[in-house]
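Entry 14. Ran structure prediction on the chain below.
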Amino acid sequence: METEVIKQKNKIHPLKFILWVAIGSIIMMFAGLTSAYIVKRNQAGWVSYDLPVAFWWSTAVILLSSFTVYLAKKAFVERAMKKYRQLMLVTMALGVLFMTLQYIGFNAFWKSGMTLQANVAYSFLYVIVGLHALHVLGGVIALIIMSLMAYSKKTRIYSTVPVDLMSTYWHFVDILWIYLLIFFVLIK
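Output, structure tokens:
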């Protein structure tokens, strides 16, 4: 009987397994895109560029959002539901602010003539960062759903699995952005 309990504790929740498989797939996609970027930059006509200030501000915002989602998870585990709800809303707002700052950064690129058609270097930048923004948008949508559930009077589920999933995914998109920022700074 005791070995059954130990076996049960050592099993990963199916949703967590699916999330980790998805994260692995996303990592492979971005590894492929950044590898292609490195190969293509050796071609004639490749241009270098500096990242707009808005990208640096967005980095600070996403780092802060990672901290707030950590605090939200901690509040949930402690059953401090009012604090959890507030921190989820703050994290969601920071996610929206991150995407807004990314838009401002791309708008600055666009106004300076760095369009998708201007150079293949810009096209890679738009595709890679745009795909990251889509993953952040998915996280914001998940935060909206979780916030609605947290404020719902009908649903009172205290399973930590959804919060664990959201927290893991949010930290992942944060780390992914840091990787991409460092990549674009070092390998223009």
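Helices lie at 2-10, 14-40, 53-77, 81-111, 120-151, 161-186. Will compare against last week's run tomorrow.
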